[in-house]
Transcriptional regulator (Novacetimonas pomaceti), 379 residues
Amino acid sequence: MFTSGQYRVLRAISMMGNISRTQLVEITGLSKATVSTLTRELLDRNILSERELVFGQGRPAILLGLNAISACFAGVSLQSDPAQILLTDLHGEILAQMDFPRIPDPDTCVDHIASGIETLLARAGDRAGPLGGVGIAIPGFVALDRRVCLRSTALGWRDIDIVTPLRERLKVPVFAENDANALVQGEHLFGILRDCPDFSMIIVGDGGIGCAHIVDGKLHRGFHGGAGEISHTTVFWPDGKETERPCSCGKRGCLDTVSSLQAIRSMAQQRDLPGSPAELELLARDGHADALRILHIAGGAMGLAVAQLVQLFDPSQVVVMLDQPFREGVFGAVLRQTMETHVMPRPDWETTLTLRETRRTDWATGAAGIATRQFLFSE
């Protein structure tokens, strides 16, 4: 869709925001004449727009930025039921959204997605540019070609291709991606970590524990595409029989059996306690011994896993996405303390740990970000 030079300009503007032509020359290493030609071509195609004047020494500079309404992108999240579709502009702002029932039948799923996107395009009207692509976040393993879902326990899928029929119906590029990979790419493109070239993100959700990594500014997939499967890391917590629980994968002691929301609810129910994060944290704050034990085991196991991740990958930041009560309560405090205890101290670097609340739209926004990245960067 764009030339290699145009992609270089678009990448720089996407990373830096509004920027002058002089700054583009410095960042891209292209000549002044080449930058002038490339930006004019992108302005003529309505992909870029000229912004406010910046006054300083010499002539005022005109800033260039992405034209938000030059294209829109659909993001689909199959991570939970109901599933979600939304439209974003080129800046990642949500234009319209809707839920639909997550029905495992692939043909029905394709129909729901296609008709939902058509509905949202009509609803957004003039606020949305032409549809530039579709991203789908799937809870499961997705092939490296981003077309076939190799296996999804949540959906009951194995070797299912919903990308090809959607491409044929919508006549735009469509990409499938593991849900954690989708979320981390959306954060890197649209979020506060857009300028961070190396970070890891862990998501504690109803569907289990997801993880993904950005390395040197790109998603790290691993040789087989399975990088980030932290949920099946084996963890052993001292004096904690809960860390020996059987996992759906056939092993015992997986992180998913201890620190996922489902595992925490199960441990709480065995002790006749409420399983919601808010209620458990409230009981722990009041000194309830069993609630404190559950949160210490779950948060401690997660802290051990994060410490191992830091030792292996040396990211500049680790972001853990979880429910607000856990972020602000015992779970989050134990997670942080355990990680700090088990990471080898170094005088020359320190990994920043951030606990953030998960928003339901994060998954679908990340999926839209996959299509946006392909549009802007061809990757």
